[in-house]
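Board notes, transcribed. Complex of a protein with zinc ion.
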Amino acid sequence: MNKINGPKIELHLHLEGGAPPSLIHQMSKEKNIDISGIFTKDGHYFFRDFTHFLSVYEAATSVLTSSDDFYRLTKAVLEQSAQNGVIYTETFLSPDFCGGADVIAWHDYLAAIKEAATEAEKEWGITMRGIVTCIRHFGPDKARSVAFCAAETAGDFIRGFGMGGAETVGTQGDYAYSFNLAREAGLRLTTHAGEWGGAESVRQAINDLKVERLGHGIQVIEDHSLVQEVIERGITLEVCPGSNVALSIFPNVKSHPIAELREMGVKVTVSTDDPPFFHTTMRQEYALLAKAFKWKDNDFQELNKNAVDAAFCDDETKVRLLKELDIE
Ligand code: ADE
Ligand code: ZN
C-alpha cells in the first residue's frame, strides 16, 4: 500500500477541533443553543481569520456540556482519523471545556473520553493518547487549574501537557508554573510556539517551558542559529501545513517551510490540527505534500518514524506501531 493511503501517526490534533460540524449542529439542536452563525449555508464552519477562528471554536464547544457529549465527540473524531489511515493519535484535551477545569468534573469527562477511545481501538484499530492542554488566552491562573487536572490524571492514557490558544497573549514563561507542575507529575511537554509568534516565541518555549516538542514551530526558520539549537536538542516539530494555509500564514503548501526545515535537519512530523475547520484530513495532508515537494513513500516513512520517536506513549506501544508501519 502506498504511504498516502497507508498507516499514519498523528501527534497534533485538538479533540474539539476535530468535531464534525454536523455533530456540533445536531447537539446545538438537541439543546436549543443557537450557534447558527458559526456555520456556512452548506454546513461547514465559517471564520474570517485566526481570532475569529478561536471564537467560532469556543462557540462550537459551548454545546459540549456533558461527559456523554465528549463520548460522542471522541467516537466521531477517532472514526474520521481511522478512516484516513491514522493508527495512533495524540489528542489535545482541554479541561476548560470539560466542566471549567474543575478536577472532579474532569475525572468524569475523562472517563467518558477513555471509554470511547477503548471502543474505537477495538472497532477501528486506532490508538489514542491524551495531552492535557491549557488555553493561553484564558490566562495563567486558569492554566494552573488545568495543570492540576493533568497532574491528577497522569498515567497510561494522559501522557503529556501542552498549551494552545492565542500565542500573541503574554509570554510562554507566564505559564512556567503550570509546565513545571506537569513535568513533576511525569508528563511530557509541548506548546504551540512559532505558529503566530516568531522565533522569539520558540526560544521562550525551549528556555522557559523546557518543552521537547513544538506545536507548529515553523517560524523558527527566521533564526538559523535557533534552528541549529532545535536540531541539537532533538526537539520535534508538530507541523500542520493545511492549518497554516487555511489560516493564511502561507498562501499554499508549496510555499510552506516544512521541506526546507526538514532539509536543514529538523525532525518534522505532519498533523491536521483541527481537520474539519481547515477542510483537511491526514490523507489529504500527505497527498498535498507529495504533490508540492515530490515526496515519495520513503519520505512519509521518515515522517512517521519521527512521529513514533517523539510520541509520548510507552516503549511497548512504540514497538507495536513501528511494526504496523513496517519500519525496522
Ligand atoms: N487551538 C485549536 N487550534 C489551534 C491553533 N491552530 N493554534 C492555537 N490554538 C489552537
Ligand atoms: Zn494546534
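The longest helix spans residues 103-124. Residues 290 and 296 are 6 Å apart (CA to CA).
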